[in-house]
Amino acid sequence: GKTRESLGLTGKEVFELPDFTESMKPQMRMRVIATDPQSGKKTEFFADSRIDTPVEVEYFRNGGVLQTVLRKLAK
């Protein structure tokens, strides 16, 4: 029920996902910390991941589809 406006986010923040670990699962609820680059103000909230499948989790961990394919080819 929260929005960008209600959280006071401008879109210029740096986002951290501290709970993103090897145990990441599709559609996981994740803690997000948004830090304003000018003031240093931190806003913490929870968001539902839109990483919907185990394959998408692998792509995300590897930095994208291309990097995943390259890793597999390098093996």
Instruction: Give Rg in angstroms.
Output: 15 Å
Secondary-structure class:
alpha+beta
Beta strand count: 3
Characterize the biggest β-sheet: 3 strands, antiparallel
Mean pLDDT: 92
Question: Can you describe what's shown?
Answer:
With 75 residues, the chain is α+β, with helices and mostly antiparallel strands. It has 3 helices and 3 strands, in the order αβββαα. It is 31% helix and 23% strand. It has a 3-stranded antiparallel sheet with strand order 1-2-3, with no helix packed on it. β2 and β3 (42-48) form a beta hairpin. α2 (54-62) crosses α3. The longest helix is centred in the last third of the chain and has 10 residues, at 65-74. The radius of gyration is 15 Å and the shape is elongated. The N and C termini lie far apart (45 Å). The mean pLDDT is 92.
Concise overview:
With 75 residues, this protein is an alpha+beta fold. It contains 3 helices and 3 strands; from the N terminus they run H-E-E-E-H-H. The model has no long low-confidence stretch (mean pLDDT 92).
Please give a handful of descriptors for the protein shown.
75 residues
What is the fold's blueprint, element by element?
Layout: H1 4-7, E1 14-16, E2 29-35, E3 42-48, H2 54-62, H3 65-74
Antiparallel strand pairs: 1-2, 2-3
Helix pairs in contact: 2-3
